[in-house]
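batch job 7 of whatever, protein = Myotubularin-related protein 11 isoform X2
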Amino acid sequence: MWWGGRGQSFNIAPQKEQPEMGLSGPKSEAGNRMPEPSRYQLGGCLPGEKVLGWAPGLRKGQELELPGTLICTNFRVTFQPCGWQRNQDTPLSSEYDFALINIGRLEAVSGLSRVQLLRPGSQLKFIPEEILIHGRDFRLLRVGFGTGGLEPQAFQVTMAIVQARAQSHTQQYRGITLSKVGKVSGSRKPPIPLLETLEDWEAERKKQGASDWRVSTVNERFDIATSLSGYFWVPNRILDSEVRRAFGHFHQGRGPRLSWHHPGGSDLLRCGDFYVASDPNKEDIRAVESMLQAGHSDVILVDAMDEMPSLADTQLAHLKLRALCLPDSSVAEDKWLSALEGTRWLDYVRSCLRKASDISVLVTSRVRSVVLQERGDRDFNGLLSSLAQLLLAPEARTLLGFQSLVQREWVAAGHPFLTRLGETGAGEEAPVFPLFLDCAWQLLQQFPAEFEFSEFFLLALHDSIRVPDTLTFLRNTPWERGKKSGQFNSYTQVYTPEYAQSLAGSSVHLQLSVWDWDLRYSKEQISQFLNPGYNPECRPDSWLPRQQASFTVPGPPSSVWLFSRGALTPLNQLCPWQDGPSLRAVSSHWLPRPARPSESLADQEWGLPSHWGACPLPPGLLLPGYLGPQIRLWRRCYLRGRPEVQMGSSALTISGLQDELSCLQELLRKLTPRISPEDHCKRRDPNTILSQIR
C-alpha cells in the first residue's frame, strides 16, 4: 500500500553545484572505476543533484526481498528496484526516496552482533552486510548487500550517506519551480490561496463574514515583525498607525489579530505575551485594549501554555515514541503498552484536545472576544486555534478547508518549521505540527463521518514536512520563504495577482507548494485522500446560532476574564501596565467534561458566569473524548517500520485480524446509513477531485 511506505514523497530542490566529497566512486577488483548510474537509471536527476555513491542490494523488511540499487545523492538516498522508472505524470514522487534531512538514524550491520551507529562525521569500521535508515517520519529502509567483489561499493555508498548527511544542514533548499518539472502553465495558480497577497486576505475575510474587520498592510514591508505575514486582520476602527504602536508592546511584535470569526458573532484572536518592559502611553494602552476587545463587551484571555507540554517535553516524548516504534525495540511485548504510556505522547494529545474543547465552548457559548496568548505566538497558539476551528467549523473539515487552515494558522502565521525540525542547529527541535496532525487524526477516528479528508491525506501531509521540494515547510517565516524563493526583491510580495506575469522584465518561475499534490501523487492515490463515509449533504445548515449584534462602543470592556488551569478568573483590567493588582482571589469552577463526547452540553452547567445567560451549544460542535482508550496510537504512521504489528493487510495473525474486523464493524456502524455506493462512485471520481484541489 502506498500509504504504508510511500507516505514520504520526497522531492529535490535545484541547487548550486556542490563540491565533491572525496569519493572517487566504487571500483572493481581490477581497480577500474565502475560506471555510475546514469540519469536515466536514477529516474531523472533534477538540476543540482549529483550521484555520490551507489551499490547493488536487496531491500528487506517487506513481503519479499526486492533486488535493486541503493543510490546516494547530495539530496536523498533512494532505492531503485530493478527495472523501475519514475512515473512521468508524478515526477516528484517515489516511495523509495529518503530525504537526507529526514534521516534520523543510520546503522551499519555486519553479522549477528556487529552494529555501528553512524553519525555525521563517523568513520565506518567494517564492511557492512546491510544498512538500516530510520526516518524521522517513522519509516524504515533496510538494504542488504551481496558478496563477490561488491564489498567496496557497500562501504563507499554507506560513507557517502554519512558525509552527505553532514553537509545536508548547509544546503539552501530553494524549492522546485514548475518549469523544472515540465508542468508550466501560464494561468496556473496555487491550489489554495497562499495568503501572500492583499487580495487573498480580503477574499478569506469575506468568506468568514468578518465584516467588522479589515486587512492591515502595516507589515507589508516586514518592518514590524518578520515572523508575521505581510497582511493580517485588525478591527475596522483601528488605524494602521495605532496598530504599529500597539504591536510594539507585544513579544516579537506579534500583537493581537483575528484568527477566525465565528458566524455566531464571537472572534478568536491570537497574540504574543505582553512586553511588560515597555512603557506605553495612554493612547497605546487604549489601542491595545480596543484590539483585544474587538468590539465585544466580554474579553477572555487564554493562557495557551497552561497545562500544556513544553517544547522540550514534546520533543522528548516524540523521541521516546520513535525509539519504542523501532523494529529492534528492546521493550518486551507484554510491557509495550506501558512503555507507550511512559512516553507521555498520548498524554500530550489528550491535553491538546481537552484545551481545544474548552476554547471551542468559550467561543460558542456567547458573543465575545477570546484571545489566545503564548509568549512567541508561533507554536501552541496555532495548534489550539486550528483544533478549535476543526471542532467549530464544518468548513475546516473539508479537504480544501483543512489545507487553507494549515496555510493560514501555520505557514502564514510564521510557525518556525525549520527550527522545529532541528535543521537550524539551535537546539529548539519540537514536533508541534506533527502533534497537531495526530490530534486531527484522533478527531477523524472519533467522528469519521464529519471529515471529508481521510487518514491517508493526513499521512501524506505528515510525510511532506521534511521534503525539500517546496518552501512551505522549509522556512521559519513568511519573510524567509518569500526571500529564498527568489520571487521578490526587497520586500515585494512573493506572488503577483496574475501569478504568471513577468517581474521586472524577467520571467517568474512559479514555486511549488506542498498543496501541488498532482505532481507528487497519482490520481489513484489522490482519490484516497477523501473519506468515503463523508456526506456533505448531511452537514446541518442551521448549526450556527443566530447572528448577534456586536458591541461597538469604544469604552472599556464590561467583563475581562483569564482562562487558566481549567478555570475562569475575573481580571480587574485587561492590560498589565495599568496600576493595581491584576487578579482577584475569586475563581469560578470549570466543571469536568462528561466522559461520553456524544452527550449534549446544552443542559450541562459549565461554571460560566451567570450574567452570560444560557446559550445552548450548536449541534455542529464536536466535543471529543480524551479519556483512556478514547485516545489511540496512530498505528499507520508510527508503526510503519514494523509492518508485522500493523492491522489490515499486515495483520496476518488471528488476533490481528479479529481486532481489524472489530474496528471495521464499528466504523461501518457509525457510517451507516450515510452514503450509497452509487453516490460514492459519482462523488469520488479522481478527475473531479483533481479539479477541486487545483
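notes: The longest helix spans residues 345-365.
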